[in-house]
Backbone:
């Protein structure tokens, strides 16, 4: 049985950044769910399936196996034993991923694969329902959050650094609306698991948050 760390929280809380650093510190696998979706998309494309053919996509899920592993510190994605990492960013793969990721059966397939990976590997997984739905028995559960203003400011600074033009108040409004949607959606709503440790990173550095989570791990 692998050692599992689940990190949940609202948009802009820094979950992916923190999860990757914790995984690196502990020598665990960071489960990149987006990369897993792209791996499945490659499976569908290689079968010659059109994105609109939901029936064939659902059927093709049955014999797809997507795994993530790290080689020399670099994430590699395997589809049915074949390394497909070099194809993940292909434009066609991105288009297929966007369309097929909304199919419930595809999401269920990824859920099974994620659970299977967690059973055999030490993993860090982040999202909005990891501790409540995906890994309810995780060894460590964290609910990582920050004030709406802090999250908006982080996103604003990120966009400005890339040369973008944006409005802080608009970003804050968008984050509030996304929080509302995530917390009230019918399927796997965002909420703190009862046994999760709450970490408010509003006044913490990235390094402080990583140290706090690493300290929770045995």
Residues:
């Amino acid at each position: 049985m692998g050692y599992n760390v689940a990190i949940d929280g609202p948009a802009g809380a820094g979950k992916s950044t923190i999860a990757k650093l914790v995984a690196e510190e502990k020598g665990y696998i960071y489960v990149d769910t987006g990369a897993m979706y792209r791996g499945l998309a490659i499976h569908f494309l290689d079968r010659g399936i059109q994105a609109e053919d939901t029936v064939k996509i659902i059927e093709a899920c049955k014999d797809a196996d997507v795994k993530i592993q790290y080689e020399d510190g670099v994430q590699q994605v395997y589809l049915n034993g074949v390394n497909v990492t070099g194809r993940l960013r292909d434009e066609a793969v991105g288009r297929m991923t966007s369309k097929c990721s909304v199919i419930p059966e595809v999401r269920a397939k990824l859920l099974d694969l994620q659970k299977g990976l967690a059973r055999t590997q030490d993993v860090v997984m982040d999202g909005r329902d990891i501790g409540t739905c995906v890994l309810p028995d995780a060894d460590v559960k964290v609910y990582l959050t920050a004030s709406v203003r802090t999250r908006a400011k982080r996103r604003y600074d990120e966009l400005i650094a890339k040369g973008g033009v944006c409005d802080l108040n608009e970003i804050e409004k968008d984050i509030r609306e996304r929080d509302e949607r995530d917390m009230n959606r019918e399927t796997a709503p965002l909420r703190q698991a009862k046994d999760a440790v709450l970490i408010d990173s509003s006044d913490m550095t990235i390094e402080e948050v990583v140290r706090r989570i690493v300290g929770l791990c045995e």
